[in-house]
Amino acid sequence: MSLRHALLGLLSDRPASGYDLMRRFDTSLSNVWPATQSQVYGELGKLAKGGLLEVAAEGPRGRKEYAITDEGLVELHRWLTETQPERMRRSEAMLRVFFLDQLTPVEAFTYLSTEAERAAGRHEALERLEKSVEWDEGPLSVNGRLALEYGLRFTAMYEEWARWAAAQVEARSGQDLTRSEPGGAPHREPAAQVLLDPEVVGEQSPDL
């Protein structure tokens, strides 16, 4: 996936200004493909120059409303049907699991417990997002719920796995590691930070 195709996809639904696109990004695509304002506006200019978008209307203070062209629709369809998505194969979180023997049982247990808490925090943030969005029967809304459901299922699975793995470490140690965790229970991240975390919908997910 690329930013250019994300913008083409959003504009295939209806024309929008750069500001409108940023708002839609923040409540939907930013959870799977983050982009800054400068990146979005820069890409819009490139797409318009390449004939994939056109300026449909102009307003005060240089506001431009963009619409996808026939060439843009062809490119979006080509990307969806003729290319394969990039598969995330690297996971630093999983890489560390291979070397947990270099840690004390308490340190390994704490690491896995923290991973579980992070996943739980992401899951709760997605649940709040689900409740805050005014869903409708439009294509972006319907498909957005499919992507959100993936995030909910992945974070639930990851939390369950991390708690199971922590229990395995505790069982092998023969100790009650829950009481030995330094600093008590791990701190959960604020929801705003969680929602912008690219891992929220599975940067660590397996290559399917």
Automatic annotation (TrEMBL):
Residues 7-77 form the Transcription regulator PadR N-terminal domain. It comes from the Bacteria. Pfam families: PadR (PF03551), Vir_act_alpha_C (PF10400). InterPro entries: Tscrpt_reg_PadR_C, Tscrpt_reg_PadR_N, WH-like_DNA-bd_sf, WH_DNA-bd_sf. Residues 172-208 are annotated as: Disordered. Residues 90-169 form the Transcription regulator PadR C-terminal domain. Transmembrane segments: none annotated. This is PadR family transcriptional regulator.
